[in-house]
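Archive entry. Fields below.
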Amino acid sequence: EAQVTQNPRYLITVTGKKLTVTCSQNMNHEYMSWYRQDPGLGLRQIYYSMNVEVTDKGDVPEGYKVSRKEKRNFPLILESPSPNQTSLYFCASSQQGYGNTIYFGEGSWLTVV
Amino acid sequence: AQSVAQPEDQVNVAEGNPLTVKCTYSVSGNPYLFWYVQYPNRGLQFLLKYITGDNLVKGSYGFEAEFNKSQTSFHLKKPSALVSDSALYFCAVRDSGNTPLVFGKGTRLSVIA
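PREDICTED_STRUCTURE:
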């Protein structure tokens, strides 16, 4: 089954403790992206990657890192999480090309206390 | 830079009545327009998209959307609403450049039995 898989789905962590949210897709997609969803703000893009070893900042990259060493994986790293990073995070992927449909993972609920 | 506006935070409609969820956009080039739906505690699911061609696009679950270039709109419609259509709906746009997909803030649809 074609899918985008994120882990963990739910996490409560403490300020300053590094964490990684993994994302993997099995559709051989070139494009991958991370979004965060906050009430009243919709989805905002954090980082995106057009292909292996190619990453770019989105609208809200501060406090986040990403890497794209393999085509299928695109982990999101919070080096020193803060409470304002409490949010619902989505990973997404698509084939290259402007009109191609983007597929989303189920989301990762992150709470930083 | 491209942008999307969903002017209504909430839309209420009676079951069996037609529904419309509004979306307007702004892009510098040709628009690629998408609608996604989010059910509680789930990821975003693709409904439909406009790339080129016929201005009326048909998608999943009986939804359709009309592309209007002069009004820069891409409203989502359904002839007869179901209670199960109650969810959060997102409009998104990207243009023909090397740009990411930009989402609106979402419209919560509530269908009342």
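CURATOR_NOTE: The mean pLDDT of chain A is 94.
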